[in-house]
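Practice problem. Given the sequence and the SMILES for nicotinamide-adenine-dinucleotide, write out the predicted structure.
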Amino acid sequence: MIVGVPKEIKTDEQRVAIVPSGVAAFVAHGHTVLIEHGAGLGSGIPDEAYRDAGAELVRKAKSVWDRANLIMKVKEPLGPELKWLRPSHVLYTYLHLASNEELTRALLKARVACVAYETIQTADGALPLLVPMSEVAGRLSIQKGAFCLEAGVKGRGVLLSGTSGTRPAKVVIIGAGIAGTNACQVASGIGADVTVLDINLQHLRYVHDILGGRITTLMSNRANIEEEVTQADLVIGAVLIPGALAPRLITKDLVKRMRPGSAIVDIAVDQGGCCETSHPTTHSDPIYHVSNVVHYCVSNMPGAVPRTSTFALTNVTLGYGLAIADKGLEQAMANDRAIRKGLNLYRGCVTYKAVADAFGMEWTEVAT
Ligand SMILES: NC(=O)c1ccc[n+]([C@@H]2O[C@H](COP(=O)([O-])OP(=O)(O)OC[C@H]3O[C@@H](n4cnc5c(N)ncnc54)[C@H](O)[C@@H]3O)[C@@H](O)[C@H]2O)c1
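Answer key:
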């Protein structure tokens, strides 16, 4: 198979979908790998490293799309890329379609097969291609949240750790999955006063145990969210209903009742956000204010630390990518239900139920 890796064109996105060791693996399996010139530079990977691993460097993005069957990316196709899609393509990337009707319709029209990283799901319910980016986003959310509390961006002027003789900041984390647990680890490690809420008691028990009881865990319900959010300095939104829009747990009215200068980092903004006042922002313009509350809602947070993120991501995408290239998409899905779960769109049909439900579209189950 011909595998194409274009340079990412989303604003401020510096990650790349493959590293040189991944190229070497595809080549060893008999595949051709096309890398657009400069695709790895944002992650500190020069063209020569790809060439040495056996890739063919291609100057024009369009040529990568024209020649490849399997397109490996990090973020959704944008702008000119949408015109270069062909029905023979398998697009393997993060897509988050449930929050993007326009993109869903464009991909349906192009009749391309779309395997979304974020919905590849193993039998135990785990989402292995979301995990490393959620780890990055969860850890980074505290770093960004600390910045949002600074006076320079109209934050409360609170230091997360506090100092000897002053209180630490109160950090409220909604969702105790991968991102939430990683946020808890960093926030409690820095010395903040941390409370985490979830509807899943096992997740709460796990985070309580690994942090040796140094945080407060609470059942997520309307009353507890209201009480915690109104007292918080920093709120981290880290909920997920796989493949679906995030539940809007923090209403506009609740934001109005938050402390002036407090902050919300809504990690879940890539799934629509768990706060009614959230809308996606970019790394170059990440922050805005609603009712005197600082909002940070960057939908591709790991892009801020591209080198770590690229290596963390490609550690987990490579195996499934190789399976698709070796066997072809249909056989790879038949052999591995995790890949079948990743299929969101197939030749003009929506094959992932939560995406169909989000837009009132028809859902087609692909037989494998
Ligand atoms: N912005 C970014 O750059 C970025 C990067 C990575 C992940 N994400 C997003 O972060 C979010 C979390 O991802 P994850 O991998 O940690 O997911 P996860 O499945 O590991 O965890 C989600 C948690 O949310 C909990 N939850 C569901 N409904 C809830 C509710 N009503 N109240 C409280 N908790 C609830 C679940 O029980 C689960 O523990 C997702 O929306 C994901 O897309 C965003």
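Check your answer against the key. The CA atoms of residues 9 and 79 lie 9 Å apart.
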